[in-house]
Amino acid sequence: MQVSLRRRGSRTGPGAGYGTARRMGEGSGNGEEVYNVIPIHNLLADHPSLKLPEVRAAMAALRTVGELRKPPFVRWHGGLDLLDWLGAFFGFQRDNIRNQREHLVLLLANAQMRIHPPPDDIDVLHGKVVRRVRKKLLHNYTAWCSYLGRTPNVWIDIRRAASDPRRELLYAALYLLIWGEAANVRFVPECLSYIFHHMAGELNRILEDYIDEATGQPALPAVSGENAFLTRVITPIYETIKREVDASRNGTEPHSAWRNYDDINEYFWNNHCFESLRWPLDRSKNFFATSPTKNRVGKTGFVEQRSFWNLYRSFDRLWVMLILFLQAAIIVAWHGSKTYPWQNLQIRDDQVRVLTIFITWAGLRLLQSLLDVGTQYKLVSRETRLLGVRMVLKILVAATWTAAFPVLYSRMWNQRNRDRTWSAAANRRLSNILVAAAVFILPQLLAVALFVLPWLRNFLEKTNWRIFYVLTWWFQGRTFVGRGLREGPLDSFKYALFWTVLLAVKFIFSYLLQIEPMISPTKTILNLQGVQYQWHEFFPHSNTVGVFILWLPVILIYLMDIQIWYSIFSSIAGALVGLFSHLGEIRDVQQLRLRFQFFASALQFHLMPEEHVFRQHGSLQNRIRDTVNRLKLRYGLGRPYNKIESHQVGPSRFALIWNEIIHTFREEDIVNDREVELLELLPYAWNIRVVRWPCLLLGNELLLALGQAKELKADDRRLWRKISKHEYRRCAVIEAYDSIKYLFLEIIKEGTEEHSIVAGLFEGFDSSIRVEKFTIYEDEWANFLERMKREGMTDEEELWGKRSRDLRLWASYRGQTLSRTVRGMMYYYKALKMLAFLDSASEIDIREGSRELPSVVSSRRQIEDLDNLEDGGKSSPSQSLSRASSSVGLLFKGHEHGTALMKYTYVVACQIYGNQKAKNDTRANDILYLMKNNEALRVAYVDEVKSVRDEVEYFSVLVKYDQQLEKEVEIYRVKLPGPLKLGEGKPENQNHALIFTRGDAIQTIDMNQDNYFEEALKMRNLLEEYSSNYGARKPNILGIREHVFTGSVSSLAGFMSAQETSFIRMHYGHPNVFDRLWFLSRGGISKASRVINISEDIFAGFNCTLRGGNVTHHEYIQVGKGREVGLNQISMFEAKVACGNGEQTLSRDVYRLGHRLDFFRMLSFFYTSVGFYFNTMMAVLTVYAFVWGRLYLALSGLESSIGRNAVSNNATLGTVLIQQFIIELGLLTALPMIIENSLEHDFLPVILDFLTTQLQLASVFYTFSMGTKTHYYGRTILHGGAKYRATGRGFVVEHKKFAENYRLYARSHFIKGIELGIILTLYAAYSAITKNTFVYIAMTFSSWFLVISWIMAPFAFNPSGFDWLKTVYD
């Protein structure tokens, strides 16, 4: 059904007659105001949403201006509302008011719809709804006020608010108006809180009828007038940010030399901002100064410095643990002669030697204090003197401990040596050390106690009492974020158990197979005499260099191998989670046949709302029975719903959804017409008593039933009981019998003798028919041609002429294009309409509608065919992208359209769309076509307009296609303070379009993504996750999995796709779903500072966690995702991600998470983010250390001297081989991929697939990828250079020339590979022990494999790389 959007009458709604006029040529063109989702300006409009009582209640609440003092200098009339009132007083833009009016109405109306049970008076906006929206919008503001010790300017009388929610509405509307016009300042959330604080105070003065003491007139805002808010509030802050960005020279200057978005924001974390900036903003203050003056405000909160020491500063607890265990293990192994360490610790001397770890620990604390001063000294100013005092005191205290422990330790040993035993005096000095150690580790003991009681730690951190701040001042600086991050006791226990077992296995392995085997060769080498050095002897009469070279690869592997153990343990844990979640239970067609009969019941319990499920089963007994059946269905216990019959409503609902999914497959050309007929679930007809299952499930069932009847010599009852054990067989027999019976009785005239004879025959007659076995036909091009011919195409040549758009769309839907993404996102709109219909439709509507639907569709097709004949045989127009012509839509009652529009819109942030239109770019016409065929699609872009003085003005514009006017219309035009792009382009583009989004949740989608109708049906289930507690918190980001649809394009694309299923993340970015109102007031859905936030997506996860939010991941829903398919594309993508991780390593977010998370969550965070890239680099450095070290030993003569000692030579060689084995353990990082795919598919096919990928040189690709990550990660940390790299998403079929490959890979792979190859060749030539070929291969196999991979991969994976002519040309 097509719902009319015709608008009647003149404009009388809110905003009429107020604000500035539009530019000429804008609007609808007929004097009526264009709307986005709901025509709020015209209550008489024929729009389905206006018929909803919740919408009318929200609109009526905004119109209750009543006795409020009217703004001066504005002609006021009864058609204006509360947002017009705020706009007139505070100087907001007209289109900002219109935009936020609709925004607020939809928020309130949807919130009122979710109240359960519904309010008594649904025509009146419930006070609880307004309060809930206001509290969520202003939660960050009230927390900020509490942090600064200030009283929020939100004056609410709870008793009055229940009956008059007007003040609550004003506060919520004021914040939305500020946010909607803040432009780039939206990235500075606490700055918005500062602005709101002052403007809310002025609002209170107006509401309380204060008198201005200076003028004696009623109080007015300090900032008012036309566009005053943009000009006098936002623009000064914007210009400050812009000048800082200009000073960065496009991000090439050091981060410490200029202020980014975070620095600007953290300036408002101190009460000093109130004294400095005042209100209205004093532009003479040093906050707005950007020249390098003495009083200029510099970095705030954190200084980003380029150094690998950031990894130690951010994760010092990890490195302290590793270093102290290494020292203790070496001491125990060196002085003991037993195999196990606890046997070596039975002697007092060895026990005391282990206490030297406290000397090392104190030195590490001193190092941390020095690094803090060396990197953060620029933060010290007149306002932050205490920070400088704490830095100095920490250095002094750490230096004192570093000096005290060696003194105490040496005095103890001196006493013991003098007494030649552990005398009472020696024990007293030992006690002194133990007491000092206990005092030294007191902070760690306190941290352990607070870990056991996480709620106490959260209370201490989140409470803003000054006494707690004084107590914690020494340990960590006070920041607005990063407080109260501890999880609940159960989740903390799970983390602790996982990491305790992992670390125990790692340390046992390291001691027995890494450290202890090195002790004997080390002692032998140190004791070697008469070594003839052929090079300079660095340490005379000592073989220290040789020992260092031998130990260096061991230590590097020891420091990085937790990454390997984490991959193994996370794979095992993930497998257990997947098994309990029943992941991959339906793996093939056979499993589909076995479980298909449960789908109708699963639909009833999972897709339908709960109140709908129990509408007919109100008694407690029935509810308990339904709950038990639900659990049986979920865990496969028995067959609780195997006898579903056709007269029930469940199968009818399921049939509508299933058939719509199959028709969607047909429109996508995944299946052909014949396969649609085999897959469809036929509706109830002909009095057939069973569900008419798809032919796919009934194949051969009648033949099998007939065979049983022939072979089984038994009575009919026993035969039928045996047939009925197979549900599909039973249904096939009954369907055949009922169909033939109905057909014969309809054909033969009732009342005749023949009719009575046939009726008697059917009492004992069984029959069967042969059903053809089903096979899937996958040729999508043939399916497309078949569909075109069905739509009237007579000759394939038409595809290159009048049907070229169909051809372009078909090709676009198989690439990574905007049209594919739009088509996928519109499935949400389609699914919403279907669910809205199923929720409200009665059993009669569904049953009768399903019965009549085939005849209605057939009649419509006949009419279309006649129309085509009348047109001379011309083909019918291609189906729209929105699937508005869906057959199920014929059953809709009309309200589904309005409900879907209220719940869902899709905003495409196309920043350059305005320029494309101005240049008549064909891509602009294509975008217009997409808007024309998708009613819920909107496009947001930035319009640049030159004024009369040749000044450029910038506007955020939202447009749509008006179906009534049949043209593109402009909905909103909000002026910006200047150019949009100050930071990174992608988050800035998101930010400008964010104000045009609606709803409580927002999903971010890349242009290379897709969606599926069957997955879109689950979105309502996903959004319900916001109501569930995950640990101590409700989620704020819902992560969902991605299905990589480019995996079959090439072998490289398959490798990328294989990695995707085991991608571990805190927040990857798209397509995750955000709690929109939560992020709206906390800086948005990404960060945008130049360079440091180049990986803008993951910073949303960092920001969410630091601000007390929660990120979850859900496997039951997915969207499509396109990946790079060529080596050059993949390398540029991995370079971009590696550079992003390099910048993350320097960031304040990673530093704060490393310090504020508990120890075990910190480990998970490190090894799933920057730690992965750092350990990849460590693995490469291990190879370098190994080959350079072996070359030194060979050329210096030390290796030949060692070789003369057969015992030490064999021990040393064995140790080297152990290290090679550990390096090759890196192959176990493929374990997550194997286990994940085994769960979803099957073990043997996955193993075969894994072996196939190895034959396709997957190991070469992954080794080459390791070099890419290492090069760009290390280079970014040391030198910068991170930038967005356009990888391209096309199909890679073109041969890349040698020159292009060399330019791209020379520094990162070729030069390094050649260097390692030369070293290995020299080692083979000069080494004494590599004369044995087996020994040389065993020692250097991994290194040679890396060399070959780095040099040959660009040529092996180059299209036509082995073509002789192209090779000669290269």
TrEMBL record:
Record-level Gene Ontology MF annotations: 1,3-beta-D-glucan synthase activity
GO cellular component: 1,3-beta-D-glucan synthase complex; plasma membrane
Biased composition (Basic residues): 1-10
Pfam family, one: CALS1
EC number(s) on file: 2.4.1.34
Any one of the GO BP annotations: regulation of cell shape
Location(s), subcellular: Cell membrane
Domain 1,3-beta-glucan synthase component FKS1-like: 166-282
Glycosyltransferase as UniProt keyword: yes
InterPro entries reported in the protein's UniProt record: CALS1_helical, FKS1-like_dom1, Glyco_trans_48_dom
Name this polypeptide is given: 1,3-beta-glucan synthase
